[in-house]
Amino acid sequence: MTQYQHVTEDMSVYRDGTIKLHGPEGFEGMRKAGRLAAEVLDELTARVEPGVTTDELDRVAREMMLDAGAVPATLGYRGYTHSCCISINHVVCHGIPSDKRLKDGDIVNIDVTPLLDGWHGDTSRMFFVGEPALKAKKLVDVTYECLMEGIAQVRPGARLGDIGAAIQKMAERHRYGVVRDFCGHGLGRLFHDAPEVVHAARAGTGPELKAGMFMTIEPMINLGRPHVKLLNDGWTAVTRDKSLSAQFEHSIGITEDGAEIFTTSPKGLHKPPY
Ligand code: MF3
Ligand code: CO
Ligand code: CO
Fold it and tell me: Which residues form a coiled coil (predicted)?
């Protein structure tokens, strides 16, 4: 049986498998962290162009977070040494910034998680480098719709599985593969907390959603089959069949009548083309 925990802010630092229910202070903290996360992606948007290295984008992301009084939550996380993840083309997630240069036609995900005043804002978007192929652009567009369809299911009384069911339905209508190996997650004072938000599920299953829960929804959708493999660096996940993969991520809080998105772009840069 799923358990819930009503928390004071102090108690909420423990990962104990329960789904935490947050109050107004939590929402206030998440709004600030989420806004900063979205601002970092807004700032990176103009810099995503052919020839730029992913190290350079990582540097800009790091400096912007530090300047805002935040810390990149990925820095030192389980031995990860960068301030964001940058996943190009067939990389599904957790691509490591390097001296590799973006090139015309690439589709790229950048995922940032500032930790600001004790709260995590976790968001990612896709970017076009120059002019990608039509099939790549369509994958990106449908992946954004998958995220927003998932969020549209969120309200008190719905079930966690309703989110994945909506995402899976949208993706499979286009014959795309929904990645099963990585999930969205609860977050707040912790980066990764209960519940696991799966992106393929049966409607009406799983724990009941309640006002005060915080979670990410972050579907990874492949042009081909859903299967992934991990590269030898221990982080980079790629599609087994080398097909293109896309992902968008928002951090949300459940309100009395739906979802509040903490990581909406202040500049309206929701999906490419920007
Ligand atoms: N931001 C990722 C997520 O959405 C996690 C990245 S962990 C890292 O959950 F160590 F790979 F950076
Ligand atoms: Co996340
Ligand atoms: Co993320």
Answer: none
Answer for the pair 211, 253: CB distance below 8 angstroms, yes or no: no
Amino acid found at 26: G
Question: Could you identify the atom of ligand 1 that is nearest to the CA of residue 84?
Answer: 12
| Ligand 1 atom with least separation from CA of 85 | 12
Ligand 1 contacts (CB < 6 A) are 74, 77-78, 80, 85, 94, 111, 113, 122, 216, 218, 235, 249
- Residue 26 CA to ligand 2 center (angstroms) comes to 18
Give per-residue pLDDT as tens, 205-247: 999 999 999 999 999 999 999 999 999 999 999 999 999 999 9
**pTM > 0.90:** yes
